[in-house]
Design brief:
With about 150 residues, the protein is α/β, with parallel strands linked by helices. It has five helices and five strands; from the N terminus they run βααβαβαββα. A five-stranded parallel β-sheet has the order 2-1-3-4-5, with helices on both faces. The two termini are about 15 Å apart.
């Protein structure tokens, strides 16, 4: 199985950015953590990050023929990008939305995701573990043959 993990704006600054909210680990740490988990479950993980909305949209479109699913942390685009929502809605791949912080325990504007309604679901507040939970969803789903 091949999974695409997409990270949106400012997530390249993990480790430096608001460590009290997002922790002290970097995006590279996240990638090694997920790749290691992937290896143990025979899942090939590709992780990408962009600060640009259009780039994320292109990656979503291109994923359709190359991956079995997408895990996306859209960063602040979560709360207002109808374009990313439409991109997710327009592909047949299952998509899981992940947030490092608990978006429901923060500012009002973070409580709404315009993307989550077109995803399988949203995982929020479990730090890097949330991505792992997203991966486990795909692994278990595959194992049970459910669609
Ligand atoms: C975030 C939450 C968003 O509200 C914020 O804009 C981010 C990170 C998270 O992972 O907790 O950039 O997606």
């Amino acid at each position: 199985m091949k999974l695409l993990i997409l990270n949106g704006p400012n997530l390249n600054r993990l480790g430096k950015r608001e460590p009290d909210v997002y922790g002290s680990k970097t995006l590279n740490d996240l990638e090694s953590f997920l790749k290691k988990h992937g290896e143990s479950a025979n899942v090939r993980v590709t992780m990408k990050q962009s600060n640009w909305e259009g780039q994320i949209i292109d990656w979503i479109h291109d994923a359709e023929n190359s991956y079995n699913g997408i895990i996306i942390n859209p960063g602040a685009f979560t709360h207002y990008s109808y374009a990313i929502r439409d991109a997710v809605a327009g592909i047949t791949l299952p998509v899981v939305e992940v947030h490092i912080s608990n978006v429901h325990a923060r500012e009002e504007f973070r409580k709404e995701s315009v993307i989550a309604p077109v995803c399988v679901g949203q995982i929020s507040g479990f730090g890097f573990e949330g991505y792992l939970m997203g991966m486990d969803y795909f692994i278990r789903r595959e194992g049970h043959g459910t669609d």
